[in-house]
Amino acid sequence: MEQIQIIEIEDPVYEEAYAAHIQKNGEKWIGWIPEVPEVKCEENTQEELLKTLAKELHKALEAEQEAWEKQLEENVKAGHLDHLLEKAEKNFKAGRYYKIEDLQKLLEK
User: Fold this and answer.
1) Would you say residue 109 lies in a domain?
2) Model pLDDT, residue 102
3) Residue 27 structural domain
4) I want to staple 32 with a disulfide (CB 3.0 to 4.6 A). Which of 20, 40, 90, 96 is the partner?
């Protein structure tokens, strides 16, 4: 086996970069992304491997996003976030809020 190379792969949809670890293993190339353990691939060439890693990374990120959205929906239906709504309404009625434009200005500073 050759030495492990670390190559950055950026997902264009989620706009996040990940460190792909790739290595020549005999006639094949193997690769994985430690931050996303389910992404592990093997291909005949380095170029094919990088394409497959990017594709599998995107699929894993999509699945993670879908799971997160499903969990959020379940939490909303179960009323687990009602206390946040009540707090927001209370703060709004008390005048403790920002207009979106004002908040954006504060965040730009």
Assistant:
1) no
2) 84
3) 5-78
4) 40
Q: So what's the pLDDT on residue 59?
A: 97
Neighbours of 26 (CB within 10 A): 8
Residue 33 CA to residue 7 CA, distance in Å, equals 10
Beta bridge mates, 22: 5, 31
Task: Give per-residue pLDDT as tens, 32-88.
Answer: 999 999 999 999 999 999 999 999 999 999 999 999 999 999 999 999 999 998 998
> What is the tally of structural domains in the chain?
1
What span, in angstroms and rounded, lies between the C-alpha atoms of 80 and 73? 10
Dump the DSSP string for the chain.
-PPPEEEEEEETTTTEEEEEEEEEETTEEEEE-TTSTT-EEEESSHHHHHHHHHHHHHHHHHHHHHHHHHHHHHHHHTTTTHHHHHHHHHHHHTT----HHHHHHHHH-
In a domain, 25, yes or no: yes
